[in-house]
Amino acid sequence: MGDSGFDRARRFRVEAAFQRLQKEYLPKGELWIGADILERAGVDDNLDGRLKLIKGLGQDMICLSTAREPYMNKALGYRYFPVSAIQEVLDATDLFVMAVIDGPFQRLVEKGGLMRVLTGWVRERENVLKAYEDERADVETLLDRCLEHPVHGVVIADDLAGDQGTFFDPLDIKRFFTPFYDRVVSKIHEAHAFALFHSCGKISKIIPQLLSHGFDGLAAVQDRTNDLVSLKARYGSQLVLMAGIEGEILEKEELSPSDLENLGGLLHSLAQNGGFILSSSCGLYSGRFLESIPAIYHLISI
Description:
By secondary structure, the chain is of the alpha/beta class.
């Protein structure tokens, strides 16, 4: 494969971030790439198309949302791949490869709706916990299948929070969800892969818990609700941050000089002392982002 050496160098840049090594090149990647941006780029919505877009943008990793059966999440505009796709992409590239797996709570919400789950948590907690346990077993089975392949990292995506904080008491999260997180992180590390956690919303109060589970990083975490500079100052020696570009910035039709200056200052701060991978907090789902992303990438050079 002609570009395998170049791809391998890109993978090493991501691995250097996990080692807290500050390099001249800032690693870049995205958890989610949507159908619309692939179409705008003129590539197919498949593994080959993703690799073409990723390499064209100069990203250093490919992340695959993984499910038992492939399907298109029409609400979010991105595709879930079967486990077999992990090996396909490992055979096709030497980029850093991560599987993205929806956690048990995330799956409950997708099936029943957030308000129904939260209401059930108050009124029928045992029923919710039983449903959670069913999802937990299925997620762990999916993870086991993913780890049969030498994937470099796994993201557990479990939206536990909104803009004001977690949906329920952090002590409840610790009490009821700890066994799952402890097990999956242990399995990921036993497979010599990195474990990252994703949740939308304000998760700053549960970061000590996430550290106790052994997560290596936070993926697509939002700056406006968590203050990434403060998170980096407090936890930068323990957690890699894969973040930095807010959805509100990408949604703008044109970035003003002040937008670029403010974002550039944020990214330079986050890039100091390593442990940072440049990513959006929302994924690249809109074709319009194809114009914004290269301009943002040109902001940072360390």
